[in-house]
Amino acid sequence: MSVQDIQTLRKETGAGIVAVKKALDEAGGDIEKARSELRKQGMNVATKKGDRDANDGKIISYLHPGDKIGVLLVLNCETDFVAQTQEFQQLGRDIAMHIAAMSPQFVARTDVPADVTSAEGSVYRAQMEQESKPADVIEKIIEGKMEKFYQSVALLEQAFIKDTDKTIQQCIEEVILKLGEKITVGEFTRYEI
User: Fold this and answer.
1) Contact 60, 96 (CB under 8 A)
2) CA distances to 28, 36, 72, 85 from 2, in Å
3) Which one of 7, 8, 18, 132 is most buried, by most CB atoms within 10 A?
4) Which CATH number does the domain housing residue 97 bear?
5) Cβ neighbour number for residue 105 with a 10 Å cutoff
6) Per-residue pLDDT of the chain (193 residues; tens, 9 = 90+)
7) Residue ranges of the Translation elongation factor EFTs/EF1B dimerisation domain (predicted)?
8) Is the pTM value of this prediction over 0.90?
């Protein structure tokens, strides 16, 4: 465990020195394992902050080069102080750019209307009924197809275009860890000519 490793992890995660040292100790000095552990802790922090109200924030706009695609995004946080930080605003720009590129239809899977989910499931079921596979295998395939469907239409479940190893939700959780406040995507609108 070197001072450089500690500084690198602190900068990446926003975690305190004690937390970084503990993660590195538990990972046996393996920076990747420590990074993963700190990321998990960040998710725990995000979960704990989930009960708080995020009544402040910013409306962020993004205009894609060529001026044919634009996005308006409401990104919420708890205080105006956090809304003014560079990290919060960069997160908003990154999410807005992602929306422009990937065109999600909903913020979260829970926002997908039941009739849309049902119709999608029916299409997959009809496709699978033509296969001569056992019913339990068909159900697993349909579950997998529904997961991919949610990942394609729900913003929070999509792989971030700048780093496909992370979802948008994980990007938000990393900023929550750094800033110490609840952050949520309120809503968004994507325009295209």
Assistant:
1) yes
2) 12, 18, 43, 30
3) 8
4) 3.30.479.20
5) 12
6) 677 777 777 766 666 677 778 888 888 888 788 877 777 766 555 555 555 677 789 999 999 999 999 999 999 999 999 999 999 999 999 999 999 999 999 999 999 999 999 899 888 888 887 777 777 888 888 899 999 999 999 999 999 999 999 999 999 999 988 888 899 999 999 999 9
7) 32-193
8) no
